[in-house]
Amino acid sequence: MKRYTARLMRQSPIIRCCWPVFPCQPFSLAGVSKKNALGRAHGFECQVQGTLFFDVARILAAKKPPFFVLENVKNLKSHDKGRTFAIIMETLDELGYDVADAGASSPDAKVIDARHFLPQHRERIVLVGIRRDLKKQDFTLRDIRRFYPAQVPSLQSLLESSPDDKYILSPVLWRYLYQYAKKHKAKGNGFGFGLNDPRNPDCCVRTLSARYYKDGSEILIDRGWDSALGEAEFQDADNMARRPRRLSPRECARLMGFDVPGREPFRIPVSDTQAYKQFGNSVVVPVFAAVAQLLLPHIRQLKS
């Protein structure tokens, strides 16, 4: 990464808007929990991923783009009792940037939920930086509401009409997930699968993650499973034939806004496993298209 950063600073042309990314895993709730369980460092202490923000800072310092957009998990704000986020904001301030809605409290305009664009609850913190000499302190992400779609697509509209049967959970996996959720529910924990009824027009699924390839448990599609019968006789043959399925990679692409039904299909040239990882690690396209639309008039002003 350091070699790439050095080359980027030497070779890149004039940059109007920089859209760098640094890994979210060191700061996400799931990532921190996993690293704690394994006794590994997280946040800035993670030498593999956590320090990449400072490579971003070096690029900003060298190129001084008028604008930048940074995205990460919502938990970035609270990681290490807020110290991680404070360091990031202080660094950006020292580099000569104002961050839009920097002092925003609840609801924080910097935290954008994809559910306003697609039926997925996916909160991400978005830092829009504007070089201080441009004097655009009035820019706010609250104006993103102007780009909300008139109607959010339903989950049903994003599903394939005839998905491959390979996405149906095996009886063994479904029994494991069912018993696991039942056990934790009895303990008062929130761990469990997310079963979604596509017939519900207001259905909004959980966050698609890079681990989706493992079992798909966070977003399962209901195929008519009878919960009452499942409690009484889990192995009932007719009910087991209606066990849920996971999303296909194509449906994940739609849930992230890469693929739109009725338009030219988004090309997925990798295996299902890699596709699940890549879509789960990505951003929701219409969210950042809206951020770009907000910035576009200001970028055009620079050219004029």
Automatic annotation (TrEMBL):
Family designation: Belongs to the class I-like SAM-binding methyltransferase superfamily. C5-methyltransferase family.
Gene: dcm_1
A Gene Ontology molecular function term of the record: DNA (cytosine-5-)-methyltransferase activity
Listed EC numbers: 2.1.1.37
UniProt KW keywords: Methyltransferase, Restriction system, S-adenosyl-L-methionine, Transferase
GO biological-process terms attached to the record: DNA restriction-modification system; methylation
Catalysed reactions, as listed in the record: a 2'-deoxycytidine in DNA + S-adenosyl-L-methionine = a 5-methyl-2'-deoxycytidine in DNA + S-adenosyl-L-homocysteine + H(+)
UniProt-recorded name of the protein: DNA (cytosine-5-)-methyltransferase
Keyword Cell membrane: no
